[in-house]
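Q: My labmate handed me this sequence with no annotations at all. I'd like to see what the chain might look like in three dimensions before we decide whether it's worth expressing. Could you predict it?
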Amino acid sequence: MNKNRIVFTGGGSAGHVTPNLAMIRELNQEEWDIVYIGSKKGIEKELIEKVNIPYYSISSGKLRRYIDFENIIDLFRVLKGCMDARKVLRKIKPNIVFSKGGFVSVPVIIAAKMLKIPIFIHESDLTPGLANKISQRFATRIFTSFEETIKYFPKNKTTYIGSPIRREILQGSAAKGRKYLNFHSKLPILTIMGGSLGAKKINETIRSAIEQLTTKYQIVHICGKNNTDHSMADIEGYKQFEYVHEELADILAATDIVITRGGSNSIFEFLALKIPMIIIPLTLQQSRGDQILNAKVFEKKGYSIMLEEEELTTKTLITYLDNVYEKRHEMQMAMNLYPNKNALSYLVNEIRNIR
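A: Here is what I predict for the chain of 355 residues:
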């Protein structure tokens, strides 16, 4: 009996990869041959290699919304990527291609359409990224994390399902998290996660306020690659990490408040865990503004408070933290009203039905 084959694609940031990882773990590898197509140097390559999935690199160009000479060069890179992807797809002959967006996904989607392979895409943000805007015309089905996003896509093939949440992130132990951190239960735990694109100003502000913060909170500071400060290693109640992998679920289970960027996948995971949030989105100079829109929706629904990076100071940080801590039970009640649609199971079932 021939196995079913699926190709995943998506990259550029961890947010375009982690939902794919959740589905890869969910699809029984006895039942499916799973392959990933990504860029040669993107974060997706590093993340996928850890789960022992065959990985094919293709040429890809950055998609820009402004006029630039590099657009001409990147057009040729995208065309080369289409040829690379077509060659891989013809070799693999998958039943379906699943895309999470990012610039590397566009050549794969175009090649899949040329070969008449069914295409599913999932849009995590409130408004679609440029890659998914281009890809929507080729897609067989489109799925969204936000209900409000449906209006940006063809209604006849778009379904609001929520965000696919990694099952393992929901299975943490608060007791194990405190033990790993060597934290006690007398003070609440504040976790700071800046995301894969970094958070220089957040890191600096946390450290400048550390004396005041550690009188009220025990702090887990996940600060990104090469961003730990060795001079602060011995501060009581303050633990810093470049990244956390296996222990993250336990740390989040013990967390009372989280400071985060506005990436959709992360904030939906914190929503699923009922952790009140301060969202500090990437600025318009750093991004297309998607994180700001995500943060505004979550704030409107009572799940979080948004603090714009331009307004971030030691004083505003402490004021916002005090505000969230006072409102934490109210925010958790709002989170309890969120209609959990179990997007992960829904997507996996839809994929299985395509055979």
